[in-house]
Predict the 3D structure of the following.
Amino acid sequence: MQKVDYFRPETIEEALELLAAGREEYKILAGGTDLVLHLRERKVSPKALVDITHISALKGIREEEGKIIIKAATTFTEVASSTIVLEKIPALADACKVVGSPQIRNQGTIGGNIVNASPAADSVPALVLFDGVARLTSKRGTREILLTELLQGVGKTAIEPDELLEEVILTPYPGSVSGFYKLGRRNALAIARISGAVELVFAGSKIAKARVALGSVAPNPFRATELEQFLNGREFNEETKEELIALAKNLVADKLGSRASAPYKREAIAGVMREILNRIEQRRGR
Amino acid sequence: MIKKESYIGKSVKRKDGPEKVTGSAKYVGDLKFGSMLYAKILRSKYAHAKIIRIDTSKAEKLPGVKAVVTGKDFPQRMGLYLLDRTPYAVDKVRYYGEPVAGVAAVSEEIAQKAIELIEVEYEELPAVLDPREGMKEGAPLIHPDLKNYEHVPAIYPKPDTNISNHFKIRKGNVEEGFAKSDYIFEGEYYVPQIQHTPIETHTAIVMCDSTGKFTIWSSNQSPNAVRKILSHSLKIPMTKIRVLGPYCGGGFGAKAGVNIEAPLIPLALKLRNKPIKYVTTREEEFRDTFVRQGMYAKIKTGVTKEGRIVAQELEMVWDAGAYNEYGVNITRAAGYSSAGVYDIPYMKTDSYCVYTNKPNGGPLRGFGMSEMHWAIEQHMDMIAHKLGMDPIEFRLKNIQRDGSTNATGQVLKDVGIEKCILRAKELIGWEEIKGEPKPELSSGKVRAKGLACMIKAPAMPNNAASSAIVKFNDDGTVALLITAQEIGQGAFTALAQICAEELGVPEDWIKVSQPDTDYTAYEWQTVASRITYSAGNAVIRAARDAKRQLLEMGAKHFGVPLEELDVYDGYVYVVADPARKIAVKDIALGLTLPDGSGWGGPVIGKGVFIPEGVVSFDKETGQSPKGVSHWTYGVQAVDIEVDVDTGKIDVKKVVAVYDIGKVINPDLAKAQTEGGIIQGLSTALFEEMKFDEKGKLLNPSFVDYKIATAAELPEMIIDFIETPLEDGPYGARGFGEHVMVPTAPAIANALYNALGIRINTLPLTAEKVRKAIKEKYGI
Ligand SMILES: Cc1cc2nc3c(=O)[nH]c(=O)nc-3n(C[C@H](O)[C@H](O)[C@H](O)COP(=O)(O)OP(=O)(O)OC[C@H]3O[C@@H](n4cnc5c(N)ncnc54)[C@H](O)[C@@H]3O)c2cc1C
């Protein structure tokens, strides 16, 4: 590994100062579970690292007027065990629980997961599901941008080098039930081959509102609006589930085209959807 | 009377436990010496190529580089059973990854830089990647000199071919057997090459001092074999080679025989008095140490209407890689075990070890049994289904019992497989299976059970020997000097239990030595699941020898005949009057007589063991009245759930029942079984070395080569049957490798019972399962 300078600011202001001074040559270090690997493989060679894990203002989860705000340097372990997350947006807890291994979950952060912009980032489908908005801050000011716009392809984002992702703001539907499921090559320490997240609001036996997001079938996780439109207003029964699964299969087939993984994934999505709906069914009763 | 408590059958705590959990245990990687140098190896980028030119001049000039060696520095061939391997490629390379040059330097970084400065010019040759092609006439020859290689008499290389061993079974005339059969069933099965993935990668330090004496510290299962092989190829006496075995961080067969010690030898010869250390990278561990051989099996079985097997014809073609010095014996072991657990009157087996331009095949926990049973045990289920019989019922009609003969014509006795099957059947809650499965697909998940049996004998030369020295210290504690290696299996604990049991001293008085070939007693190798059996017998004899010496001194001391004395809890006592006793510590170094004079001397016992009556197999027929020391049988039954949409197999429960003769340490036997189940499950679902069309390994990392994790753990129910082995210590049979053998075929059989699909190639990936479901059900 090459030599790099290391800074450990304790406030957001200090961090922003460093990022502005470092221009494009400084890089933010959160849990390091992606970045350290990239340094080793020499995919990136920054002059300095700005470690944000000692900035207490970048940690924590709170609820504010129906919105749930997650600070960027919050770890997967913290998210997965948060009462707010478990109660209001369980899909995100599902996702954070299956990231890597306990060590990775104790170290890796939500912010790092977003900014790394992997197609298979586990938390991202669940964040996108709840209309996640990223709040970006720099010395120049602050802006908010939808995650789906922030993510610009594999490993690409709209973040400027002097910007810090401060938090993500989620807007779940009031009273919704949600779930996430990931299919990997094995049960732990495996990246998602396909993942999905679904949020439903029930009105009696009917689905009043629906959101669906998918991961690992496109350059970035995305909202499957066709599936959402189909679900809106439907009865929540076997027939709807089977139709949803059929539509999901078509959608995945469309997205993947002639990729080598397509024949498997376009069928396996059925199992992923089934599992998510099972989770929602179980949670709905509670 | 003293009521003696036995150590046999007790879950005595691991001897190596405290050292390992506190981090005190030293592995070779932990060892550091002054003036130590570090080695790196330049490896071939071709699977098969002539070496036209090697230019090491730039590397030699790099500051910090102390020596550079290539094949010409040490062209002697070495090996365990067939001497076909050189430490560095000579004239040509035979697999992608083969050592071409080695560097020793003052740091790993400099050694690595030096490696990158070595220029090699190759002329590519056509590569053999499929052994079925490789064994055909006209295939490119990987070892044109095969006919001149030294080998042990028990293997049969075919000159001017790529076949390094051909083992045959001819039991009766198999055609006659097929003629007597009502049905003939044929099947083909395949296992890919896989890796052992020990946590500790191969590590060694080699030093040659100014007198020419070699000292070798190595994470190795075979210190005595390393010494023997190196002494033979260096042409120096064994007093000039000392091999030490600190703790070994997982072996699974990968660390048997000579491995990475060899490429350090020519470096050490050039650099006297410099310990040279080499730590294998994970990538090298995957590709450049032993791997499990791939295997293609074709079986043809003749069966009567009643479901009795009459005849079996089996061809096994082993994908054994570039050097088969060890692999030749795996082919042989599979050959002589090829009846599996069944009593088959007519048999024909051809087991071919075939050179390919791939990583070197070698022992991996099971030594051919996992590969062979993958074929046989699925085939048996397939036949049962075709006959409309329950797979257990079919097995019970055909298994070996006392008086049955196996593939080699040996008449068997003390056969415990029936008990194992019946116990496993009960523990898994088997429901009779008849006819084709009719799964309920709509719920998305299908659950079913499956079962597979296994058999294994220690695969070793007929005269593989063990020995032990029991040496008392001044305070009555005991040094047990053996060269068996503690590779995590618990050998030190089991042997200490045996030693304490026989001596009559507390178990925690026994300190088991780590291998040091200059001082510890000879052990052939820590392989073949043979240590408790073979070294165990040697320890019994050594302890009895030492105990006799204690009793002799006791007899003199008490003035009573030796037969009236015993030793227990650290005292020699008069059996009829236990109050009359003398502490072992008071006589451990000799007896002091009432007049103050001395008598006797320090107590040292010795014991040796060679399994007796093991007779070589006939070259043409593979027949022998007793070709191996003994057999161990076992069964696993699994309960799995298959996701119909994703094809993912979730193993819910595994029942394992083994007849191990006598359970010496229940906790260790259970832990061994649990580990094996997980390893077996891992090979069933995930493991496969993948190569490109040029023979380059594509997945030499834990990212791309997945093994099971704790998150795949099934519920495990483990039980043992104890049918004593005549010459086993307390009746114990060899046990250790057996535990991973039946897991994969049991899962495959359960998959069939779930969905009526049979996948005959390992691993059972989600894609393969999904594809098979789609083909069968169109969904
Ligand atoms: C063994 C292993 C297993 C893994 N398994 C999974 C898995 O199952 N699922 C999964 O999704 N991921 C997995 N990962 C990837 C990784 O753990 C996650 O992507 C994690 O979220 C990265 O977060 P981090 O805090 O470690 O980020 P870092 O590595 O510190 O940073 C990642 C990138 O984000 C930037 N960054 C970080 N925080 C900010 C911020 N606040 N503002 C601006 N830029 C920022 C960094 O500069 C860097 O470019 C695994 C990684 C490993 C090593």
